[in-house]
Design brief:
The chain has 180 residues and is mainly beta. 7% of the residues lie in helices and 59% in strands. The chain has one helix and eleven strands; from the N terminus they run βαββββββββββ. Strands 1, 2, 3, 4, 5, 6, 7, 8, 9, 10 and 11 form an eleven-stranded mixed beta sheet that branches. Strand 5 and strand 6 (105-114) form a beta hairpin. The radius of gyration is 16 Å and the shape is globular.
Length: 180
């Protein structure tokens, strides 16, 4: 099996550039991009769509924060989630976040957004700093099912109907490894 590491850095990448890059990787030696690294400077974020919008979706990956660059207003965090079609104002988002630079842990939580406003946030557990997190999420008929580190699945009812799966990072660097 081939191993590819994709580092998109802290640059804004157009959809056309993303598609071209992924097609190029697939053409050279049958390489499938299984490890994605995203970086964002303090106070900024970077988002990467994993697939086209669909009525059902699945994400299964190992998530690791590898560099922390906290900003007073925007802490280091990595995100995995679904947003409504092309509308990022409606979404379900799992995240690991380090609120203070002095914390030796990250908070694992999920949140739900409607019309750009956070309407629900639930803390799941504390994660050791630099420890990878296995995350599994599915979406179907408005229900997101999430499992953290192969634990008991949690079902969350949302108003989402057609979703785009994505990963993102803010104020730091994260790796998203689909070879779980």
């Amino acid at each position: 099996m081939y191993f590819c590491r994709i580092n998109l850095g802290a640059y804004i990448v157009t959809l056309r550039a993303k598609l071209f890059f992924l097609i190029f990787l697939t053409m050279i030696g049958g390489c499938s991009p299984s490890l994605l690294e995203l970086s964002a400077p303090p106070g900024r974020y970077q988002l990467f769509d994993l697939a086209k919008s669909s009525e059902t979706a699945t994400i299964a990956l190992k998530l690791s924060m590898t560099k922390f660059e906290n900003d007073a207003q925007w802490p280091s965090a990595a995100y995995v989630g679904f947003y409504q079609g092309e509308n990022q104002d409606k979404s379900f988002q799992f995240m690991i976040v380090r609120y203070k630079e002095t914390n030796n842990y990250m908070d694992a939580r999920y949140r739900v957004f409607e019309d750009g406003k956070q309407i629900k946030i639930v803390s799941l557990e504390k994660i050791e700093l630099n420890k990878p997190v296995d995350i599994s999420m599915t979406f179907a008929k408005g229900i997101v099912t999430i499992s953290l580190n192969h634990g008991k699945p949690i079902e969350v009812q949302t108003k989402l109907t057609v979703v785009t799966p994505y990963v993102s990072v803010s104020s730091g660097t994260a790796e998203f490894d689909s070879r779980t």
